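Why P-II family nitrogen regulator? Reviewers of the renewal asked for a concrete example.
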Amino acid sequence: MKKVEAIIKPFKLDDVRESLADIGITGMTVSEVKGFGRQKGHTELYRGAEYMVDFLPKVKIELVIQDELLEQALEVIVDTARTGKIGDGKIFVTDIERVIRIRTGEENEEAV
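Here is what the prediction returned.
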């Protein structure tokens, strides 16, 4: 099993969620996060004063999926979240050793 963490632009969340549902992935955790990479923030104007916004709002989607769904899920996320502009985000993939469903005690694939 793999854990996929995708950091994307907030307005792309619904499209990504729907695209993942189309391939059978419905369970996910979504968090509102802030950060920056090469984008390095931007300046905004507030009451006539310009100020620097260092951390930009993003959304983090976390999925735990079976290995055979990984490539399809990554392709869907990349294709759906891409705008072609700086700040589209990143995807991180890590191995999952064990999963336990608290309610039933099911483990690994049965728990996902």
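The two ends are 9 Å apart (CA to CA). This is the kind of structural detail the renewal will allow us to pursue systematically.
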